[in-house]
Write a structure and sequence with these properties.
Structural class of chain B: alpha+beta
Oligomer: heterodimer
Number of helices of chain A: 11
Strand content of chain B: 35-45%
Distance between the termini of chain A: 50 Å
Helix content of chain B: 10-25%
Strand content of chain A: under 5%
Number of helices of chain B: 1
Shape of chain B: globular
Distance between the termini of chain B: 72 Å
Order of helices and strands of chain B: HEEEEEEE
Largest sheet of chain A: none
Number of strands of chain A: 1
Number of strands of chain B: 7
Shape of chain A: globular
Strand order of the largest sheet of chain B: 3-2-1-6-7-4-5
Structural class of chain A: mainly alpha
């Protein structure tokens, strides 16, 4: 690439960043309630794409898609990811609703069209300036550069592919693995007692939902 | 060290506070009064009637013998106990999950063939 073209490209990107920041500030201040503008979305997706090394993008999942691995990944996802992404990957959670940007619906083409390598890289490294953390630890790595938990991330890649076909039975199983505080546990117990035919509590019939 | 701990606690409090503040889901429980193709009318324990819109994405779960089992819209009937997780939208409630159980009094009696032999 010619030097002048490179300078022009950098200039365009910087201009886009400035416009995006300005739009963000004008758009509901800096509140996380806002939804990113189309320009921000396009810019962020392209920057993320460029940030993933080509070798990582083309990486193949070393694990076969087995029922056992899928079960492990389901439980792992329920425990670590569902608080923002929801068990079904739709992203409709109280935590997700408060993030900027909101978690994507993992079942849709925008996520499903990413390569296995891209999904793995995002799980491992997170996405800067979003709520997506990096899940790889910085501990010892094997000869291939994979850390001890890399297999868990590859299992999650299989699970993300499975999300559009998640069954109600799988969702019910995942709910057992969702992290819940004492209030949510107590509320769940009250609901089950009610359904089991125990005397309905004299609490309000509807209440704000704190955690999903 | 103290400063780090304080920062961590501050962060934790901030994150937890955000989660509670942004919760927009509603849980309701009651008895099914009436069902139509796209909504369910529920009588709550305090006597109010609340309509919940049923969506194509609404998930149905049957609570039976202390276990949750996948179910479908057709399994839901008037008189069932119901716990609904819903999302308020405009002036309506859209059902995310409808978990229900059949009250003992309305459960169909076991057929003779299903009785254990003496």
């Amino acid at each position: 690439m010619k030097r002048s073209s490179l300078v022009l490209l950098i200039g365009v990107v910087l201009f886009g960043v400035v416009i995006t920041i300005a739009a963000s500030i004008l758009h509901e201040g800096l509140s996380s309630h806002a939804t990113p503008t189309a320009l921000e979305v396009v810019l962020a997706r392209n920057v993320r794409h460029l940030a993933i090394p080509a070798s990582a993008r083309s990486a193949q999942n070393p694990l076969l898609d087995s029922a056992e691995d899928l079960r492990d990944a389901r439980r792992h996802f329920a425990d670590h990811c569902a608080v923002c992404h929801a068990n079904d990957g739709g992203g409709d959670t109280p935590m997700g609703a408060g993030l900027y940007p909101k978690p994507p619906d993992l079942r849709l083409a925008r996520t499903q069209s990413l390569t296995d390598g891209e999904l793995f890289w995002i799980i491992e490294n997170g996405v800067r300036f979003t709520g997506m953390p990096a899940f790889s630890n910085n501990g010892s790595r094997d000869a291939f550069g994979n850390h001890a938990d890399a297999q868990d991330s590859w299992k999650l890649v299989h699970f993300i592919r499975h999300l559009p076909f998640l069954t109600v039975a799988e969702r019910i199983e995942m709910e057992k693995y969702n992290p819940k505080g004492p209030d949510a546990r107590s509320e769940e117990q009250e609901e089950n007692d009610f359904l089991n035919g125990a005397t309905p509590q004299q609490k309000p019939e509807s209440q704000k939902h704190h955690q999903k | 060290m103290k400063r780090r701990r304080f920062m961590f606690l501050f962060f934790l409090a901030f994150v937890t506070g955000s989660a509670f503040a942004h919760g927009n889901k509603v849980h309701m429980r009651g008895t099914v009064l009436k069902i139509s193709a796209d909504s369910v009318l529920v009588k709550t324990p305090d006597g109010k009637s609340v309509e919940v819109k049923l969506m194509p994405t609404t998930v149905y779960v049957l609570r039976s013998n202390g276990q949750d089992k996948p179910a479908k819209f057709a399994d839901l009937a008037a008189g069932d106990f119901v716990v609904i997780h819903a999302t308020p939208k405009d002036s309506l409630l859209e059902g995310d999950e409808v978990k229900f159980s059949v009250p003992a009094a309305t459960k169909p009696a076991a057929s003779p063939s299903s009785n254990p032999k003496p």
